[in-house]
Amino acid sequence: MLPQQHDILFSFLSVMFAVFGIYVFANVIQHCREKGGINTPLWGGIFGVLAISCFMMTVHMFSLVQRDQLIFFFSTYLWLILFLLLVWGVFFKSNKIERQSSPIIRAFFFYTTISVLLAGYTNWLPQQRSDPPPKEAAVVGDMTMEEFAEMGRVIIFGAKQVAGQKSIGKGQCPLCHTFDPGDHMGRCPNLFGVEKRSHDRIKEDRYATSPIAIGETEPAAGIVKGKWDEIPEEYRRQNGPDEMIGEDYIRESVMCPTCYVVEKFGKANDTKSPMPIIVKPPISLSRVEVNAVIAYLQSKDTPGEFAQVTVPLPQDDAGNTGGAVVEEDSGGDEERPVFVTGNEDIQTMINTLGCPLCHTIPGIEGAVGELGPRLHEKINAPKRIKDPNYKGKATNTKEYVRESILCPGCYVVFNEEAGESFPDGLMPTTFSEQLSVQAIDKLVDFISQTEPPAGS
After folding, report:
1. Closest to 244 in 3D by CA, of 227, 268, 261
2. What is the mean pLDDT of residues 209-233?
3. Global confidence as pTM
4. What is the CA radius of gyration of the chain?
């Protein structure tokens, strides 16, 4: 299913239901006028409320995207119509005018039932978007700083937010960070005001020593802390003062999150950051992309002003090899969701879906995320199914893994190390639209066999 669209059939049915509700109301009023002794205010009020409810639900249906339309239709709207039909029958029976009931009742009920069953079956079948793969192109031509900062925004948030879904781009930043004043998710620092803080951080005594000292190499990232001129050459700035500046702090933060961990946002007494290294798989931002993100972060708090931006434009960057890859601006392409067919190898599938950002997955290189539970499902799944708090429907490991992918909120794992549940809502709920049947089966088969490394 394509989440940014309406379902045509169910949208049509909702309109027909609204019209039917008005028809029933008019029909009841007509019978009340033709036959004496019927409590017109009572029955008119009941069917008036039902008609208005049908109309309001139809309006609400058109504010939803396809997936939410189907959920609302079957969970709420369909039951209202069945209740309307039941009350209409009670009206005829209680007033002994059942022989005057219109054949439209039986016809409407029959055709509605057939339509709903057919629509439900066709929408239950997995659907695959048939668009060609997104085009990619190198950054060419001159860019303005406004365009460069916008490129950074797209890397963070994506080209366009889809209604009902988180706005997340290639960088995956909004999974953990917030960007507006006063908005604190609790997993990672709010990035509002980060440009100003970047200049202050490098002057703090804590930055010089925690969790590693300036001049020491952080093992996971391979970055020498506080040494801008020792950053890997493909990301190193070419010009500027011979000392750390705010730009260097931001670059170091994304390339080496554990070089400095903001208090209360780290693990192991703030000595380890939960943030992935975004220049490594699965995110793998290029030099130009990292600079674009920095440009956005430096200018986001002063819309329209770029005086604080210190990174060079791609055409002015002596260290830019021209190999940065971004999506070509082709209108529809930038709205296309990621889709995994199942023909990819398991490493590529998992990296494409971004699983290593949050999970530690045995057998997958670089999958050491700690925001979500470790995927040792060969051992964990049977235990969780037996957990009294488990309210899902799975009866075996593969069913549990499939349910966890397609409905991550059905069971939220308890984090024993932190003494609380892992964050609910962190894992995307859109994998049903991003995976073919073959891909889901392949992913379930692999994850169902994952277990802790020997000796751990």
Report:
1. 227
2. 92
3. 0.57
4. 28
